[in-house]
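This section describes the prediction task in plain terms. A model, or a person checking by hand, is given the sequence of a single protein chain and must write out its three-dimensional structure as a string of tokens. No templates, partner chains or ligands are provided. The sample shown here is typical of the held-out split.
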Amino acid sequence: MLSTHVLHADAVVDAKTAVDAVTRLDGVVLTSVVCELDTSDELAPSNALMGAIEGEYSQCVVGNLADDVEHIIADYLQVSVGVDDLLTMKNRLNQLYAVNGYINTGVQIPNQEITEGMLRLVLTPGRLLTMTIASDLRDRYITGRLRLNQPFNLVELQAQLKLLEQDQRITRIDARVEPTGVAGSAALLLVADTVPRFAIGVSLANDRSPSIGSNNTRLQMEANNLTGWGDALQGSVSTTQGLDAIDVRYSLPLTFSDLTVTFEHSRSDSSVIEQPFADLDVDSETESSGIVFNWPVISELDSSLSLGLAFESRRNQTSLLGQAFSFSEGALDGESRVTPARLSVNYAVQGLAASLAAKLTVSHGTRALQPTVDDPSSAGPDGSFTAYLAQVQYARMLTDRFYVTAKVLGQYSASTLLSVEKFALGGVGSVRGYRQNQIVRDNALLFSVESNYRFEALPGFEIVAFYDWGSGENASGSVSLGRDTISSLGAGIAYSVANGFSAELYVAHGFTDFAVENRNLQDDGIHFRLSYDYKF
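The expected answer:
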């Protein structure tokens, strides 16, 4: 929210001085009006808070008001004018500036002698003389993101504050513009509330593969703004009957345009617990490390465009009865290793009733850090590959309480991929009604449409209806060919409250049957999640 004292021209211009200056000008015919810029030394400190001066000051033009200024001045040219006429012209110019957001910009008429019909005006451009900030973020974090131009414009400031309020680190902004004792200057008082410094959450969900234990307990911890520069440290620990996993992530903005670097590391150790394989000591160890750069190219109130560049190292090692053993195509002695570079483009647009988000990622396997290399004469997978992943999601509010969401994801690779780069279908995150990772393929297409209805009498409670569809096949050259398609229809309920508790339950009917010996809730199309987050 932004509040302000209205800084009319009288706060900038001494009207009595103007009257005294023009008392001798009755009956003068003006041929031109020229503005001079007021460059008083007392305004100099504001230069650090604002950008370059914008406007044609010699013509009394501020910002993009050239046509309006020209129209006002034209009314007083080539006609005989007096004191009242000139004061009216001055007031009309000052009013024009004010209604267009230049609330502390104004002109005055200095003492002068009219020669050849030329009238001189002095333009005092409005500026921010001081900015007082109260926030857990550093002052430079905020001032560096307020790209204000001279002269000061209230409308521009409001737009900048709304954009700043979209920052994921900021929850609320309260700003106030007040006059100072210096002509043409203003003071900005700004309070920026940030997200809680710490957060801890716990969840229980059946979102893992039943082969390693579907019921997943997860503990997540988060620390925000540790340095005052908007950084974030996140960590999580997950465990099932046959899985232990950790994830660590640290992100830090590098520039005022929010170029951000993120460091990621994850590791998991799993064992197959389903019979008849549980007695064979089938183990898997997966480790991934990476660095991600995200560069916002366009950041506007209703749209954004960003580029991402990531470098990763991913490794998977499998074993049987304690000995290295390859279960997937392309693995050597049970080991698969890839070091991909990924380039992504993200676009999002937000309207009053609809939103659209799209992302395209191109992944290319590099030769860095000794990736898995297959026999050149073989068509099998290795660490050298190129894959394309496209994602599009559209959401629309149909009423105040009813909205629909549709999403499409697709991955394509001309060559076969190692297991860590394949696309998985099945489970709560893709096609509900099936086991997690029911189908794992090189190339895949996923479509999902979901409708949500919020109950007015039960705040936080929603009912959900959905249809999911997915299809996948391996690239030519794979030992496993053929296309598999799965789809489902279902419903669910979701509940969330302000105290951090949330719950989800989905029941889906899958239209394709898969034979399994040990049935699981996922095989019956049931997916659930319970979570609680505490922020402080």
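For orientation: Helices lie at 15-22, 66-74, 83-99, 139-143, 154-165.
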